[in-house]
Amino acid sequence: MSEAVNLVLSLNTIATQLARYLSIFILICGTIGNMLNIIVFMQRSLRLNPCSIYFLSSSVSSLFALFSGLTTKILSTYDLNPIDESPVQCKIRNFLLYSTLTTSTWFIALASIDRYFISCQNVKRRQLSNLKNTYYLVGILTVLTMLIYGEIFYCFGANLSTPPSPLPCYSKNYPCRLYNDLTFAIIFVLIPCFIMSLFGYLTILNVRKLNRLVDTTLSIQNDTKRMKRPDRQLIQMLLVQVVLTTMLGLPVAIQRLYATFTIYLVKTQLQLSIENFALQLLLLFTFISMSIPFYLYLLTSTLFRQTFMGLFRKYLMHRTSTTQIHVLH
């Protein structure tokens, strides 16, 4: 057996093991983290802030993306995945997956725009950060994303040969694959990452300007320039997630663009195995970005940590009192 064949077998084995065990770990951590995010951001101290609504919406989308993406990936390693064989389930699963992945990222992009507005000295710009605009944009973005990925119900098919298709459930012809991969790379990764990076940078500049302002009086004008503590904390949380999403999202976009534009090139089995291994690994990176925000918020934000610990103490007190009542009876 040649070295190339051995390497192909090794890469396929590693890809299977990663999809099986790392996916389980990501799914468990992501489910717990996003559910706790939802609980924390629904608290009154946070849910009245427009940025918190974007974080809440992103957590809901991430939860759906993790379940629709990772459960089937885990099952496929045991040859138990019905998605690969059923055209209807294949289409529904990918529509849900692509839509929720995209909305999760775009909600963070909208949050970065919101934090830019709230950090501006201009009062009119700050007023653009409000709950009415937030709910409106969340609804519009959700509908637009569903329309963009409506093509999946036509383009995707099951039982595809691998290779040339990277997955058994994937775009069934080249025009569909070109549209789908370009849409995924541009709409899901490149544009939102650009928006997050741009407005994250502008927000940092605004915060630095505000920090350089020295209050000489307690006038109303100076008071309007101060940023409230929750807003500062949410900016800090956002900037951490912007870096995370950009670092983990860009590689999969580059890989998809490369694989699509080189589809008609003659490739060896080793090259195809390397591409498949890269795809599987980078997709896991994408799911990691959906699973760890809670833990980053907990480490980087005092406000988020205090809110979470307050909820945890309430839960412990309630459980203790319930136990005491049962003992007395």
Task: Describe the model.
- The chain has 329 residues and is mainly alpha-helical.
- It has a single domain, classed as Rhopdopsin 7-helix transmembrane proteins.
- Helix content is 81%, strand content 1%.
- The protein contains 13 helices and 2 strands, in the order αααααααββαααααα.
- The chain has helices at 3-41, 44-47, 50-76, 87-119, 123-127, 131-148, 152-155, 174-212, 220-225, 229-261, 269-291, 293-300, 302-328; strands spanning 156-157, 170-171.
- Strands 1-2 form a two-stranded antiparallel sheet.
- Helix 10 (229-261) runs antiparallel to helix 11 (269-291).
- The longest helix is centred in the first third of the chain and has 39 residues, at 3-41.
- It holds the Pfam family 7tm_1.
- This is G-protein coupled receptors family 1 profile domain-containing protein.
Summarize the entry for a quick read:
The chain is mainly α.
- Largest sheet descriptor: 2 strands, antiparallel
- CATH architectural designation: Up-down Bundle
Average pLDDT number: 84
Look at the structure and give the CATH class. Mainly Alpha
Record the strand order, biggest sheet: 1-2
Instruction: Report low-confidence residues grouped into runs of 5 or more.
Output: 214-225
* CATH-derived topology: Rhopdopsin 7-helix transmembrane proteins
Q: What is the percent of helical residues?
A: over 70%
Q: Would you tell me the structural class of the helices and strands?
A: mainly alpha
Our estimate of the beta-strand percent is under 5%
Number of DSSP helical runs: 13
The CATH H-level superfamily is Rhodopsin 7-helix transmembrane proteins
Q: Which geometry do the CA atoms define?
A: globular
- The total of beta strands comes to 2
